[in-house]
């Protein structure tokens, strides 16, 4: 895929804007759900090797709660929502009143794990709706898949589609966090949006950011 | 002397390397990927590949990273070992990984990649006549593996099922 080598500044800015709009919408949704103010950080767009991707997630062996979606429709890709375990447990107790242990292998009840999936669903849905409106492309999330396991083991599954074409991925990373929430019990989740290699051209074309004949 | 201490060679995703005794070789966070170890118990040399995909003919890229695909990683690993002085007749293999990290109902090929990786690695080992001494494959847990060529033992750590040696 020579295309993702030759990315321009304008295109990079577009990808950042996608992170901005998507995560901004997701932050609003989360804020309504929790009835608290939620902040988002400035999106970070990076081309990373698969190993660097695991480092971004806190290391290949770090145990995290991950909700994974395939993005389907005109510009397919993968999307992850990552929560450190402590914060996943804290979210569950805020939403369901259920206390879960936050040891390395928490056992979530069915209610708790469906609450976590629903969180992922709401956030991914609002992220992708914003992205779809912005690009005028028809895109939608698959059903959510959830796993609590080593970050490397879970994320590598989402990199399969990209790995057919390249040894690195372009990741649009945005973090959400509760306002004033510096302690570990506040929600501090991260979105990774990883478009499939062929989707970049489609996204840029729909926004008129591609030169004809180049 | 630092060289006298046992060291750990780390292998990343879609990567491969070899180690000689008294060192050991390790890869972390195997999900649907498969960790293949080929070793010569007499010379105490082992090689490890972190295989991501079953078949290099599916590659859309111009250059192929040998360690990424089962059909290129297993022969590639064999070459590395032979260059390092391993004896072909003594080689044995142990494999781990190939999990299905997400529960799903539909037959999504993307999510079935784990079992396909295991199958492809086994086919290659059989073709090259390298016997598989033990394996810990499938399931739905991530694994971190470390192989010690002196002992010929693969140590496997999972989040949900603790630590085992195979």
Automatic annotation (TrEMBL), chain A:
<feature type="domain" description="CheC-like protein">
    <location>
        <begin position="112"/>
        <end position="142"/>
    </location>
</feature>
<protein>
    <submittedName>
        <fullName>Chemotaxis protein CheC</fullName>
    </submittedName>
</protein>
<keyword id="KW-0378">Hydrolase</keyword>
<keyword id="KW-0145">Chemotaxis</keyword>
<feature type="domain" description="CheC-like protein">
    <location>
        <begin position="11"/>
        <end position="45"/>
    </location>
</feature>
<dbReference type="InterPro" id="IPR028976">
    <property type="entry name" value="CheC-like_sf"/>
</dbReference>
<dbReference type="InterPro" id="IPR050992">
    <property type="entry name" value="CheZ_family_phosphatases"/>
</dbReference>
<dbReference type="Pfam" id="PF04509">
    <property type="entry name" value="CheC"/>
</dbReference>
<dbReference type="InterPro" id="IPR007597">
    <property type="entry name" value="CheC"/>
</dbReference>
UniProtKB/TrEMBL annotation, chain B:
<protein>
    <recommendedName>
        <fullName>Probable chemoreceptor glutamine deamidase CheD</fullName>
        <ecNumber>3.5.1.44</ecNumber>
    </recommendedName>
</protein>
<dbReference type="Pfam" id="PF03975">
    <property type="entry name" value="CheD"/>
</dbReference>
<comment type="function">
    <text>Probably deamidates glutamine residues to glutamate on methyl-accepting chemotaxis receptors (MCPs), playing an important role in chemotaxis.</text>
</comment>
<dbReference type="InterPro" id="IPR038592">
    <property type="entry name" value="CheD-like_sf"/>
</dbReference>
<keyword id="KW-0378">Hydrolase</keyword>
<dbReference type="GO" id="GO:0050568">
    <property type="term" value="F:protein-glutamine glutaminase activity"/>
</dbReference>
<dbReference type="InterPro" id="IPR005659">
    <property type="entry name" value="Chemorcpt_Glu_NH3ase_CheD"/>
</dbReference>
<comment type="similarity">
    <text>Belongs to the CheD family.</text>
</comment>
<keyword id="KW-0145">Chemotaxis</keyword>
<dbReference type="InterPro" id="IPR011324">
    <property type="entry name" value="Cytotoxic_necrot_fac-like_cat"/>
</dbReference>
